[in-house]
Amino acid sequence: MKIRIYIIHAIFIEYFNFRFTAFAPMPRYMGKPIKKAVFYELLVDIKQSNLCCFKEDFLPDINVVSAPIFSSDGSISTVISLLGNSKETPVNATSIYVQAVQKASVEATRKIAGYSTGIGN
Q1: What are the backbone dihedrals phi and psi of residue 70, each rounded to the nearest 5 degrees, phi first?
Q2: In this structure, what DSSP letter does residue 60 have?
Q3: Could you tell me the CA-to-CA distances from 20 to 6, 12, 23, 95, 110 in Å, in that order?
Q4: Strand (E) positions, the chain?
Q5: Which side of the chain, N or C, has fewer Cβ within a 10 Å radius?
Q6: Secondary structure element (H or E) that encloses residue 6, with its range
Q7: Degrees to nearest 5, angle at CA 118 with 91 and 27
Q8: Cut 0.85: pTM above it
Q9: How far apart are CA 65 and CA 88, in angstroms?
């Protein structure tokens, strides 16, 4: 009897998770709606560039720039983030805020891990 309950419970949880995750709305990115395939491509881009920017996507009137700091084993140790008013804090590649976060990330990684990420040198 217990095994049957566990199997039914496992099937229910799997169905429940699929039902809510498969049809969940995708987040916005840089102020625009995004499809799931594009979202996963962006995750790859974020990993390669060591930079993540959000333009009023999750917080109204707030832009966010984030970059990782790596430890000596190559894993992400922590993340530097800058939040600012969207009217005063642009998050495009040429923004001084984006460049400052990238520079801080590279310098902190160099001091902590002893190597450079290759981004923003």
Answers
A1: -95, 150
A2: T
A3: 21, 12, 6, 38, 42
A4: 52-55, 62-70, 76-85
A5: N
A6: helix 2-22
A7: 35
A8: no
A9: 13
Per-residue model confidence as pLDDT tens for the chain (121 residues): 455 555 555 555 565 555 555 566 667 777 777 788 888 888 888 888 889 888 877 778 899 999 999 888 888 889 999 999 999 999 888 999 999 999 999 999 999 888 765 554 4
DSSP letter, residue 26 = P
Report the chain's terminal Cα–Cα distance, integer Å: 63
Within 10 Å of residue 75's Cβ, how many Cβ atoms?
Answer: 9
CA separation for the pair 21, 45 (Å, rounded): 23
Q: How far is CA 27 from CA 3, 21, 24, 30, 31, in A?
A: 39, 13, 9, 10, 10
Q: What is residue 81's predicted lDDT score, i.e. its pLDDT? A: 93
**How far is the C-alpha of 35 from the C-alpha of 3, rounded, in Å?**
40
Nearest to 53, CA basis, from 79, 20, 14 = 79
C-alpha to C-alpha distance for 29 and 106, rounded to whole angstroms: 25
Rounded to a whole number of angstroms, the CA Rg of the chain reads: 19
